[in-house]
């Protein structure tokens, strides 16, 4: 049976990521540590268009609004996981970064040296929401730890 001491979880609150959260929680044992990485894909900044956001002031107000909403959603997600970790007496650290999901995950894994990396599977075609475009091939090629891809919930 797998008994990792240092688990790196990459998730962000979507149904597939929540499945990865639950799996990582079941793998955590007393004395283990969960390092939780939330990557905000950098493509959202290009979604500003230039139609009604045609001046710097309006664009800045809208960008601040989007950033605040993202921060609120991320905080809710992190707080729920942190509560679960506290109840199980597991060391929990979270980090939020803006960038390309695979590159950020590889960089953080190199920094912390996990025994296992846990992610959710890609969202099925036709499912609502944006796809983060995690490059699985890149992860498999560059991660030094085993990669567990949790199936999308039925």
Mean pLDDT across every amino acid position:
84
CATH architecture: 3-Layer(aba) Sandwich
**Shape field:** globular
Largest sheet: 5 strands, parallel
CA-CA gap between termini:
25 Å
SSE string, helices as H and strands as E: EHEHEHEHE
Query: Gyration radius, to the nearest Å?
Result: 17 Å
In short:
The protein has helices at about 15-25, 55-90, 100-110, 135-140, and strands at about 5-10, 35-40, 90-100, 115-120, 145-150. By secondary structure, the protein is an alpha/beta fold.
Write the layout of secondary structure elements.
Layout: E1 6-10, H1 15-27, E2 33-41, H2 56-88, E3 91-99, H3 101-112, E4 116-120, H4 136-142, E5 147-150
Parallel strand pairs: 1-2, 1-4, 2-3, 4-5
If you had to describe this structure to a student in words, what would you say it looks like?
By secondary structure, the chain is α/β, with parallel strands linked by helices. Helix content is 42%, strand content 21%. The chain contains four helices and five strands, in the order E-H-E-H-E-H-E-H-E. The chain has helices at residues 15-27, 56-88, 101-112, 136-142; strands spanning 6-10, 33-41, 91-99, 116-120, 147-150. The protein has a five-stranded parallel beta sheet with strand order 3-2-1-4-5, with helices on both faces. Helix 3 (101-112) packs parallel to helix 4. It is globular and about 55 Å long. The two termini are 25 Å apart. 25% of the residues are buried.
């Amino acid at each position: 049976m797998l008994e990792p001491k240092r688990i790196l979880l990459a998730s962000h609150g979507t149904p597939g990521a929540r499945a990865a959260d639950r799996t990582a929680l079941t793998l955590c044992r007393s004395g283990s540590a969960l390092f939780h990485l939330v990557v905000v894909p950098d493509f959202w900044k290009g979604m500003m268009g230039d139609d009604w956001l045609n001046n710097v002031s309006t664009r800045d107000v809208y960008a601040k609004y989007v950033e605040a909403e993202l921060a609120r959603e991320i905080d809710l997600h992190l707080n729920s996981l942190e509560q679960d970790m506290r109840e199980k007496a597991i060391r929990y650290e979270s980090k939020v970064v803006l960038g390309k999901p695979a590159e950020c995950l590889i960089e953080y894994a190199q920094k912390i040296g996990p025994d296992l990396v846990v992610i959710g599977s890609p969202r099925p075609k036709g499912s609502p929401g944006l796809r983060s475009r995690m490059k699985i091939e890149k992860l498999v090629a560059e991660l030094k730890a085993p990669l567990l891809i949790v199936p999308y919930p039925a």
